[in-house]
Design brief:
With about 220 residues, the protein is mainly β. The chain has helices at about 1-10, 35-40, 70-75; strands spanning about 45-50, 55-60, 75-80, 85-90, 95-100, 105-110, 120-125, 130-140, 140-155, 155-165, 170, 180-185, 190-200, 205-210, 210-220.
Length: about 220
Amino acid sequence: MNKWLAAGLLSLGCTMFALSQNAPVDLDSLGYSTLADFELHGKVKAVRVCSLVTDYCETLEFNAYGVELQEIRNRKLVSSLDGTVVFETPTNHGRILDTYQDGLLLSREEEGGDIVPTRRVFEYSPERLPTKESLYQKEGDTFVLQGVNLLNYEGGHLASVVSADGSFTTLYNANGAKVAERSFQDGETFILEFTYDYDAQGNWIKRYEEEEPTLTREITYG
């Protein structure tokens, strides 16, 4: 359970713009990506990520807003009215519904097949930074709160993600890179630390876990 709660927060990452109330929304500026792995600096066109553990590589392409293109290709617009935009994305087991309000991701629901339907609800600061994620699972006809994750910032940069029950903490540096994961289970503390090599733009290009290299990134700039 705790791992699921933490994973929910780590996968939060929406492109945010200072849109006025009920302003027209450029749909290509709305996207869901991964803060921990894909917070990128500069005008990035593509990232080739390779796992040194599994010998597997994947290339991700981004549009001018920093939104991953495959996500845009796979989704379809359900509705767009008064600043509220809803997208539906098919999955192997069903679908995902994303709801945006004035450029900010408000909720993500996942359902279908034999998985338990889930809902994530996001809250933001006045600066339009995500500060809270509430995670729900469906029990019968009702979504029941399972946990809360909190995002904390220092100098405008994400500094930590903390589960409200204290079971999991993720720490980030000023480059937006994850530097440590701390979990607390059965009275024990588990810590996994990460270090990086960076390019001139401040994006990491090689990641180490406990000093062992595990991932590389080849970044193409536009």
